[in-house]
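Quick one, T. Sequence first:
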Amino acid sequence: MSEFEGKVVIITGAGGGLGRSHALEFARRGAKVVVNDLGGSGDGRGSSDMADGTVEEIRALGGTAIANKASVASREGARSIVDDAVEAFGTVDILVNNAGILRDKSFKKMDLDDWDIIMDVHLNGTAYVTRAAWPIMYDRNYGRIVFTSSGSGIWGNFGQANYGAAKTGMVGLMNVLAIEGRAKNVRVNTLAPAATTRLINTIPGREEDLDNPEPLRHPRMVTPAVLLMCSEDAPTGRIIQAGNGKFSTAALFKNPDLEFGPEVTYEDLLARKEELLDLSEVSEGRL
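Structure tokens:
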């Protein structure tokens, strides 16, 4: 029997790409899945019935799933996703925040509306759905939550100031919730994926064949990391990178402190600048 048998799993943005892959795999292992997807294009415009397609696939496998087509960027929409899970299945055990869009442009040329919508979908949307599920998990002393970040947030990428800032914001949220949820067995982790998805196809020069992706670029190559972060023995407060057949952990590190007295000046610090910036001896900066 799978450890996910009977678990209630919400996956946002599960109409295609990574979310669809996660949803199908959880369903194969006996989970009851809430498939959320507004069904918009890669830049968030429009809507469709993509969620229904994933639900049909799950049911064809003999699994259990329902569709929700609300926007995570709306507080009411986010709440409806969790409400639908509770109404259909009684609770929420696992939440995978996967929904996302792109509005890429260099910061100099970026319209602030494109900044706001990326923050609304990625960072606020993640917070809204998580906040709706949090009390349920907290009260039951059980929960597994995944945020979907990106290498653009962790390492940076030209033309993605809005996206990178939102994705890094998720890491900050994870750091706090991992601490707040630890005593209640609510574990919170962050995924940094790389795969062929409809978002990738909005980037000029990065178009890939969505119907026939390269085997190592297939979304299913990322999904094992999500299951690991949602398992009974899941870690918490971790960033796992997954894609192209590779898996790794990213973390924040710091070098040894430089200690000064209360009269420290700029000149004092400047004199030890090389020591300050030297990363040859570091340790993981965790609370």
